[in-house]
Amino acid sequence: MRVTFYGVRGSFPVAHPRVTGVGGNTSCVALRAEGAPTVIFDAGTGLRRLSKELVHEGFGDGAGEAILLTSHTHWDHIQGFMHFAPFYTAGNRFTICSRASHDRRLRQVFEGQAARPYFGYGLERFQSKIAWKPVTEGESFELGPYTIKTVRLNHPGIAVGYRVEHEGKAFVYMTDTAPYAQQLLGEGFHTKQPETDPERIALLERYGRELEQFVQGADVLLYDTFFTAEQYAENPHWGHSTPDEGIRLARQGGVERLVLYHHHPEAWDDVLEGQRAEHQNKHAGSDVLVDLAREREWLEL
Ligand SMILES: [Zn+2]
Ligand SMILES: [Zn+2]
Q1: 59, 64, 106, 210: which has the fewest C-beta neighbours closer than 10 Å?
Q2: pTM for the full model?
Q3: Distance from the CA of 178 to the center of ligand 2, in angstroms?
């Protein structure tokens, strides 16, 4: 399996001379396996660059098949959705997975961003065949040749983490999430005050254990490292995490490779490269290789 990064930023895309190394597009990663549908994680602005490649991989002729797994539908994870050319070509087939909404069907959730006056037209322009698959965090399912597992992430509105298994390899995509440490984030508004209710503290511990089990034995863990330790201390209720927490999770799960991801929009190339090196050195002697998600780069599993 090959995992390629097309968008690695969190919150909003950035254009600046000091991000040209790591890249400024928002969340989008693709997993390709021989003879299997392409798996796309999130539809941030990076999706547009991916679409330029997919037109040469059968999607330009209407012979493409892909699975889109969205962590959640905050803007930085859907901004590329309406600009994805393969949706407009008849014959292409997609399965779109996203967290089930209480009050709306999945198609409506995605249609909302395309409705006037936010966009020029709606999903009726899509010529491809789309199957909508609402996902409840914690469930597992088979799609094509893949086994896909899901987990609840600690984020305002709740996000979903995915584990994709194929031919003995496992890739975990885990963004956006705060550590299950201080606040239990979910529906509703959250302040930075730590939880005091024993029931909510028990839930924090339970979800934290589930996350640890979820990553066990994975080959690669791609993780939300939006914050430095200092930034996290300031805003623990924003639903983002740190490289230290990613390393902790990877080590306890016996994961060989951690990929820092969903970078802060104001983290320049030198800062991110420095952070990666610093954390690799800090944990020298552990078995975890600390890597940095950079646009246009890939890794093999
Ligand atoms: Zn995000
Ligand atoms: Zn988010």
Answers
A1: 210
A2: 0.97
A3: 10
